[in-house]
Amino acid sequence: MVSRAASALLTLAIAVPAFAASEERGQIRIPADDAQSGVTERYRMAAYTGEYHLTRRYDLRHSGVTVHDLTFPSPVRGTIAENNTVYGQYFVPMEKGTVPAVIVLDIMQGNQLVARAEAMWLAQNGVAALVVVLPHYNQRRAPGSRVKLVSADVTRTLDGIRQGVLDCRCAAAWLAGRPEVDADKLGMVGTSLGSFLTALTSANEPRIKNVCLLLGGGGLVDAYYDHPKAKPVTEWIDRFGGKTFVKKLIAPVDPITYAAQLKGKNLLMIAAKDDEIVPATAARALWAATGKQRIVWLDAGHVTSALYTMAMMREIRDHVRGAPK
């Protein structure tokens, strides 16, 4: 359902493209974080310098959007060569002057259809949007590899999520330096899995001001352990030492760990009352812990929330552009 809605939105937006290939290269330079940076130690950056490559692909004249491909080196280097490069697609409004900008992160399925549809619509509505491919997805997965960002291998999952956060921090630094971007109106948008990495990145990236979490939450162990349909999960948690142990294990990737930092952001949450993937209790817990900022409840489940696609997009647009409520 989500993919169908996103596909329809994207198809309408990119009709009749004009091909306009041109290239730009430059440097992303980020100084090292220190203990006074306000960034949690796990997500601090060492000094980073990397060359970015920006290729202009399409001028979508009828949509008023230019689309670029972006690559830059990941600040985390591993043994899988494909995963050492970060890929992005950058959607820019053709209007003159500076505009707000957001990083957009996809759902767990990961073919970028949802994220690109969101980015296209935002660009049509005056917000530059950079879709970032997360570790071990798409171009970042070696041929035949079974390595995934989220798996039963807890250590690999924690490391992959850390890499994703640092990749997005580099992307935020790149966006902040763009001449078309208003660096004081930089944000992030994440849906489902993407919402969790959006929360982690936003909490630990001072450049990010506006945060939109769609179908996410926090306090994950409590939310899943107490869910009436979660017996297989509770049995797994009990085998691994109970709630207290598992909470400590996954605390580095649970958004509620960073609630204090998120309180200082301009936060929008959109949650589904009958979410069968991320329990509504997780959304309520994160909302309460982050200062009870704006939350929009959908009368839907995780998948059927796609029925509210346009309503969600309007909420996001207004939030990142600073429209009064």
From TrEMBL:
GO BP term (any one): proteolysis
Keyword Transport assigned: no
A molecular-function term among this protein's GO annotations: carboxylic ester hydrolase activity
Peptidase S9 prolyl oligopeptidase catalytic domain boundaries: 165-288
InterPro entries: AB_hydrolase_fold, FrsA_esterase, Peptidase_S9_cat
Domain of life: Bacteria
PANTHER family recorded: DIENELACTONE HYDROLASE DOMAIN-CONTAINING PROTEIN-RELATED, POLYKETIDE TRANSFERASE AF380
Record's protein name: Peptidase S9 prolyl oligopeptidase catalytic domain-containing protein
Organism the protein comes from: Frigoriglobus tundricola
